[in-house]
Write a structure and sequence with these properties.
Length: 321
């Protein structure tokens, strides 16, 4: 099989109706989508990306009215969803039985999301089922932000890639757990915390900062790793082990002194965190095509979207054990 890359919603629907999986564009990253209500499709999603069955999938739909079919939605949550979605956010809610346990890895909750991408919204409106979709990368690798990224890694395993151009946000959705007494952030992502707090009207806790937190899905350790070894050390610490031609760099606005100019990737020359988020995964992938062995990465300012970017960068760092 070799995936066709195209912009035909009908073609995507034909495949999905046969319980096949199709890559879809969203504003965050590309997803690997299948009918969320059919076990056969869901099994295909897990198999295609070699994802462990204990890591649950997000269910995508086109409107908050649809949420009621799939989850119990507390009354106060509806205006939040109306203001925040479509957008880069996933809501964890108590699931209804129509959602197969396979989708939620046996959890009593389901992640629901309304992606903000015109092609995918139209696709979702034309389907009579929601789409389960993890990011369209092999498990443990960097998420794809353009159709060609999906084709490079999963093109031999899926029939169709719906091409919606470059993802505007570039990092995955923020995940907010609304199934407990108080909202909790499970994953930092495309929505800034301060924006969420102003709409939800309370301070939001980040589960990673709570020592009593149970192991949350989505908090797997090395999750965004490219093949090249990434370090936050200075170039001087790497030079004894690697020759200069084999060292690359990703930095925020200014090149890193001592690294060869052609091996330097800049996230945003103007210091714009939105632009940095949009470039992040593309640059991490580019390192793997540079014939280098190691790269120095510079963290970005730890504010706003910078927190989500640094979270991805930290997880991509080389771990010797
Ligand atoms: O931006 C995104 O969210 C993208 C696009 C395609 O929508 N999707 C995405 O999916 O990033 P994935 O599977 O790569 O990451 C989803 C995360 C996983 O870490 C999973 O553990 C968590 O969401 N998750 C899903 N359902 C959950 C649940 N019921 N409770 C807690 N975490 C959940
Ligand atoms: Mg993922």
């Amino acid at each position: 099989m070799r995936a066709t890359i195209g912009t035909s919603i009908s073609e995507a629907i034909d495949h999905l109706n046969k319980n096949e999986v199709v890559a879809i564009p969203t504003e965050t990253v590309y997803g690997l989508a299948g009918n969320a209500l059919e076990r056969e499709s869901v099994i295909r999603i897990f198999e295609t990306k070699a994802r462990p069955a204990f890591d649950p999938l997000i269910v995508h739909t086109h409107s908050v009215n649809e949420f009621h079919k799939y989850a119990d939605v507390p009354a106060e949550v509806i205006p939040w969803v109306q203001k925040l979605s479509p957008g880069p956010i996933t809501y964890i809610l108590r699931k209804k039985p129509i959602i197969p346990d396979l989708v939620t890895s046996g959890h009593p909750t389901v992640g629901l999301r309304i992606p903000n991408h015109p092609l995918t919204l139209e696709l979702l409106r034309r389907l009579d089922y929601p789409l389960a979709a993890p990011s369209a990368n092999p498990f443990g690798y960097v998420s794809p932000t353009k159709a060609s990224h999906v084709a490079d890694q999963l093109g031999g395993k899926i029939p169709y890639i719906l091409d919606g151009g470059d993802c505007e946000v570039g990092i995955e959705s923020t995940i907010i757990d609304l199934s407990g007494e108080k909202p909790v952030i499970l994953r930092l992502g495309g929505y800034e915390l301060s924006e969420l707090e102003s709409i939800i009207g309370m301070e939001l806790n980040d589960i990673r900062l709570s020592s009593s937190a149970p192991h949350a899905p989505g908090m797997l350790h090395s999750h965004y790793a490219p093949g090249v070894k990434l370090f936050t050390s200075s170039i001087d610490d790497l030079l004894p082990s690697y020759s200069i031609e084999k060292i690359g760099a990703i930095s925020f606005t200014n090149p890193i002194h001592g690294v060869l100019a052609e091996k330097q990737l800049i996230l945003s020359k103007t210091g714009d965190l939105r632009e940095a988020a949009k470039n992040l995964f593309r640059h991490l992938r580019a390192l793997d095509n540079m014939e280098i062995e190691a790269a120095v990465v510079e963290m970005v300012p730890n504010e706003g979207l910078g927190k989500a970017i640094n979270d991805r960068l930290k997880r991509a760092l080389y771990k010797s054990n």
